[in-house]
Every structure is written in structure tokens, then in C-alpha cells.
Amino acid sequence: MRRATKIDGRVSRAAKARETRRAALLQVARRIFSQKGYHATSIDDIIAAAEVARGTFYLYFESKRAIFDELLDELFTPIAEVVRRIDVSPGAPPPHDQMVATVDRVLTTLVENREIARLLLREAVGIDADFDRKLSDFYGRLEALIVSALSTGIDMGLVRELDPQLTARCVLGVVKEVCHYAFVERDGADVDVRKLGREMIAFTLTGIFKH
Amino acid sequence: MRRATKIDGRVSRAAKARETRRAALLQVARRIFSQKGYHATSIDDIIAAAEVARGTFYLYFESKRAIFDELLDELFTPIAEVVRRIDVSPGAPPPHDQMVATVDRVLTTLVENREIARLLLREAVGIDADFDRKLSDFYGRLEALIVSALSTGIDMGLVRELDPQLTARCVLGVVKEVCHYAFVERDGADVDVRKLGREMIAFTLTGIFKH
Amino acid sequence: MRRATKIDGRVSRAAKARETRRAALLQVARRIFSQKGYHATSIDDIIAAAEVARGTFYLYFESKRAIFDELLDELFTPIAEVVRRIDVSPGAPPPHDQMVATVDRVLTTLVENREIARLLLREAVGIDADFDRKLSDFYGRLEALIVSALSTGIDMGLVRELDPQLTARCVLGVVKEVCHYAFVERDGADVDVRKLGREMIAFTLTGIFKH
Amino acid sequence: MRRATKIDGRVSRAAKARETRRAALLQVARRIFSQKGYHATSIDDIIAAAEVARGTFYLYFESKRAIFDELLDELFTPIAEVVRRIDVSPGAPPPHDQMVATVDRVLTTLVENREIARLLLREAVGIDADFDRKLSDFYGRLEALIVSALSTGIDMGLVRELDPQLTARCVLGVVKEVCHYAFVERDGADVDVRKLGREMIAFTLTGIFKH
DNA sequence: TATGAATGAGCGTTCATTCAT
DNA sequence: CATGAATGAACGCTCATTCAT
């Protein structure tokens, strides 16, 4: 037993060390990709900043593309999670409250992951066909959610008769552009998330007209 | 005189041939850039498709960047022209009509230049610092126009009190995203420009709510 | 007869035009080669400055190398001529006078052909094996002449016992370096040929020592 | 401690291997540059002769220019060192002895570095502006030394009244040309350094005249 | 004769990935 | 596990020369 523990101990210690290294590489890559973009970042940049040998990098990641993918997943996953929580069942909180809450959570998630947000919003496409597909899958899922929310809204008589698909894209465009403005152009540091959310929601719900 | 005519004939024939070649190269480059993006397109791809020698390419364009720039200018220029025509002088057509007309013209221009539209909407950034600047200049000009239109609208009591800058980005986001949807994801072939325009305007003016 | 004259007239007029063009190309090439060196000068530079089409250049010269060769021959020929005139026959002018006169003539020739002199003195080697051979032939001829002059001098008891070959190279080295100083480093414009000649001769004849 | 030793062992072995490769590349480049000159030598030539992949070259040298520079420095450095050792302080060896010794050492250094000497003496100019400057700096330093030696000689009454600058160039010309003769034209293999030195010194000190 | 568009071999350099130690 | 030397395909670009008109 002692020995087993010892081995387990070793193993887990080793596994932990492995995870630490991996995390360190991810962190460094996150920063550099976010600063320079995918193409302008070289493996050299990453291993130099991580103070790790060339080969070591490939011990933890299959390729440059692989680490980039993994970084974007860090954002895809929580965003998808946040959005998934929208509840359209009867007895759920009122749609408007949910909308506010969701927008808030999305923005908060982006703020918490500014660097990856930059990555996502800048490196929209052009890496390769596979990545383009991944990206459009992600946005496709968001779109589907908005479409379903809009459709429900129309059914409930809250939302005017509109093309749900096209309007979903409008909403998505608002979110993307405002986030680009906040996280890519400005540093993303001093962003007033509340204000951003309020303006986006107002725009989305009522447009620019005075009613 | 006969000789002069002859020479003129020759010169113009040569100049014409030159223009033809140039146009052919531009066309090929337009297609390939639009399909694969800037980075994934090599000079080799272009000259192979154009069935032209390596040196020939450089006879017509200074560099890969130069032909890319020229392609994007094919779209920048007419878009800027279209947008410039907005008339805020007294006695001008009513704002709403102008808006509809402008959106219509912008979309028509994009439809007419689908491939470059793809290029513009996909290659958001990451080519190089110069290009990033060019791109943000372009969008900056659009944004400024929208800001000024919104401010005028607020002054006239047509538009509600909103943050003109942020809202301009919302509008820009709507346009970009809808265009991305129409020209990048779908082929851009069977796009109902009228419908697209109507939906975008409705969304922008009144949001999603039923009033 | 009239017709023949006419034709002759035409032919010679054409031949003259041909020569004029050739000369113009040579002149332009001379200037540019002299300013930028062989490698840094492109055919483009030459035809642009000569305002002549690309193909025209090749109508007059076989290649870049050929025109360069021809330019250097412009200097080789008169220099060889000048040096050939040294007269060691009995009853000839005294050796010292001839030496002074020769040095003077060589320097004058160089001054009159500053641009080619620059070329000769800078582009010592490295163009290709053929050119290297040509160059060493030229210097070989000069060397042989100096060797023979030195040997005669020794026989006549004027010159100390020395290794004629090696010393010939010393003399050549003096000439080359002083000319390099005068024509390459300084513009070659305000060169006091007399003084240069005097110093070189004094150095060659008596060295640096005070006797 | 054992482990440290092991690591040290590894490190030094690796460092040694690195140095070996570097040296091999330098040697190959030295030979080829010396045979063909800078422009006629391509990276391809070097890596083919060194049996090394393209990328490997750039692992050891920044650029073609960088390896060329380094090669020339192999000669610049010891020559500068040798020449620097001239001692004009009171109580120093007599000037003539120092001159003989210096010439001897310079020639020996050149013999020991024949290939680079060829390089130095052939690639007079034309690589690029930077290199031209480097070269003229080097020769400028030599010239300055000779000028100062001549001026001292004049003050001491040993050297006749002459133009020190121009004469320094004469001396430099003698050295360059004789070295060119010995190292570029002849293989540089069977050069009798002593004799060369003696002749050069005799020529420089007393010229060709029998006194 | 004159043109200039076309050619394509060649260049120096980069960088993601592999693998022996 | 960790290393970093080695790889080589690929890149954008140049330029002396050719040739149809």
C-alpha cells in the first residue's frame, strides 16, 4: 500500500507538474497570440517566452494550430454554457430579465477572458478551412439560440414579426462589433460592462427611434 | 500621318493588351484571395491560375500586398462614394428615404463585388500593421458618418437619447454581420438585397420589440 | 549612281544613327556603372537613363557583361598605347624623362576617363572568371613593361639589384592605390595630377628615406 | 553532483558539437567565397559543400553577409592586433627593426589566413554600402598608422620631406599589391615571406635607384 | 530597327515540425 | 520527460535575357 501510494504520489505529482507546464505554455501562448495574432506569432515566440525547449512544446501540443484551438475553446466553452442557461420553460424568469442577465454574463465572461476574446474577435478567419468551420459552428450555435428566443418572443407577442434568422444575425453583429470595440480596439481594461450591456440591449430591443 | 495612326494603333493595342492582362491577374487574384484568404494564397497560386510566369506578375503589381490592396480598393472606393452622397442640407430628401437608398446602394455595391466583399469581411486583420490601419480607417470613416447622422437625429428629436459612438458601432455591427451572412457564408448569389435592407433598417430603427 | 548615292547616304546615315545610339548607351552605362558598380547596376538602370527600350539594348550589346567589357576597353586601349611608347632604343630620351612623361600621360589618361578609371579600380574582381582573366591580362602587360624597364635600368647601372618582378608589382601597387585615392575616394575632379605624379615618382625612385 | 556532472558533460559536448558545425560552415564558406567571390557564392553552394540543410545554415549565421563579415574579421582582428603593437615610446626597439618585424608578422598572418586574404584583397568593394564602409575603415586605420609613422620619421630627420598622406597610400599600395600577387594570383602556398618582406621594405625605404 | 511584354531560373530567408540524445 | 540541433518545403521577389510584333 505504501508503495502504491508512493507511486500514486509520484504519478500524481508528475501529472501535476505536467499540468503546470501545459498551463504555463497556454498562458504564454494566450498572451502572445492575443498581442500579435495567429500568423505573426511563431513557435519561437512562445517557447522563448515560456523558457521551454522547442521539442517540449510538441510534447504538450500537437501543433501551433492545436494550442490555438485549445485557447479558443477556453472561451467557447463558458460562453456556450452561459448562453445555454436561457430558460424558456413556463414559470421561468421574465424574458427581459433573462436577456439582461445573459448579456451581462456573456460580457463578464469576455472581460474575464479578454485575451482570448481579442483572439476570437480579431482572427475571425483565414487560418484554415478547419478553423473557419469551427468558428462558424460556434457562431451557428449562438445564432440558433437567438433564433429560438426570437421565435418564442414572436409567439408570445412580445417581439414584432421579423425574420428570426436574419435578425439573429443582426443581434450577433451588434454583440460582436461592440465587443470588438471594447476588447480589441480599446485595451478592454477600463470597459464599463454595465453601460455596454445597457446600450446594446436598448438598441436591440427598441432601435434608435424615439417612440 | 499614316505612320502616326499606325503607331497610335499599336500603342493603344499594346496598352489594351496590358490592361487585359492586368485585369486577368486581378480577376484571378480576386477569386483566389476570396477563396483562401490572404495568407493562404501564394503568388504561385495566382500565377498558376493566370497561366503567367512569375516575373510577369511583378510586371503588373509591385507585390502581393499591392494587388491585395488594389482589390480592396475596388470596394472601398465605390462604398465610400455611395456613402458620401448622403445629403443633410435643408431641402434634401427625408432622412428615412436617404437611409433606405444608401443601404440599398451599399448592398448593391457589395453584391456586385461579392468576392471582394468576402475578402473585406473575412480578412478582418492580421495581414500587417499597415493594412490594419487601412481597414480601421475605412471603418472609422463609416462610423464617423453614422455618429454624425445619429447626432443630427437626436438634435431633430427623431432619435432617442443614446450614446452615438457606441450605437454607431451597433449599426456597423449589424451591417457587417448581415453582409457576412449574405456574402461569405452564402454564396452571395441569390441574395434578396431588398429584403436584407428592409430587415436591417427595421432592426436598426425599431429594434425587435413590438411597439 | 544617284540611287547608289542615295542608298549609301541612307546606309551611312543609318550607320551613323546606330553609332550615335551605341555611344549614348555607352555613355549612360559608363556613368551608372561608375556610380553604382557592376553588380548594383541593372539593365533597367541603363535603359531607363538612356530612354531606350529593353530589347534595344540587346540590339547593341550582347549582354551586361559585354557593355562593361567594352567600357573598360576604352581605358585599356589608350593606357596600353601610352605605355607602349616607352623607348629603350639607344638615342632615346633619358629614362627619367620618359618615366616622368609616361606617368604624366597615364595619369592624364585616367583623369580624362575618370568614370572608367573608377570602374577599373573598384571592380577589381569578382564579376566572373573571364573578366578576372581579362583584368589580370591587362595588369600583366603593364607589369611586363615595368619589369623590362627595371631590367634595363639594372643593366645600365641606374637601378639597384632588385627582384624586377616583385618590384614591378610594388610600382603597380603604388600607381593603383594612388589612383584609387584620387579617382575613387575623392571625386577625381580637383586632382593635382602633377603633384600626384611627382610624389609617386619620388617614392618609386628614392623611397621614403632621406639620403 | 553526479547529475550535474552528467549535465555539464552533455552541455559541453553539445556546445562542442555546435562549435564544430559552426567551424565547418565557416571553413566551407571561407573556401568557396575565396574561390568565387561574394556575389558568385550562393547559400546553396555553401550548404551543399557543407552537406547541411538550408535551415541549418541560418541556425549558425544570421545571413550571408553575416558569415562573410565574420570571415573577414578573422583577418581584420589579428592584423589590427599586429599593427597595434608598434611601439613609439622612448627606449623602444629601433624603428627599422620594428618595421621589419611588423611586416613580417603581417605577412605571416596573411599566409596563415590565405583564403581570407584572397577574399579581402579581391572583394575590394561593391558588396554593399555597409561593407564598403567597413573596408575603408580598416584601410583607413592602417593608413593613419603609416601617416603617423612617416610624420614621426620626418620629425626625427630619418624620412625626407614628403606628403605623408599620399605616401602612406603608396606604402599601402605596395603592401596590397604584393599581397595580391602572393596570395591571390599565386596560391599563396610557396610564398617566401622573408623575401617578400625584404623587397617591400627595401622598395619602400630606398626606392629603385642605386644610391 | 525598335519595342516592351514575357520569361523563369535563381536568390536569400523563414519557420513548423522531427528526432537523436 | 526534456532538449535543441536539424530539417526542407515554401515563400516573396529580382533581373538578365528573349522574341513576337
CATH class of the largest domain in chain A equals: Mainly Alpha
Strand content of chain A: under 5%
Shape of chain A: elongated
- Determine the N-to-C terminus distance of chain A: 76 Å
Number of strands of chain A: 0
What string gives the helices and strands of chain A in order?
HHHHHHHHH
Per CATH, the architecture of the largest domain in chain A is Orthogonal Bundle
What count of helical segments of chain A does DSSP give?
Answer: 9
Classify the oligomer.
Answer: homotetramer
Radius of gyration of chain A: 21 Å
Could you say how many structural domains of chain A there are in total?
Answer: 2
The computed structural class of chain A is mainly alpha
Runs of chain A in which pLDDT lies below 50 for 5 or more consecutive residues are 1-6
Query: What fraction, in percent, of the residue positions of chain A are helical?
Result: over 70%
CATH superfamily of the largest domain in chain A: Tetracycline Repressor, domain 2
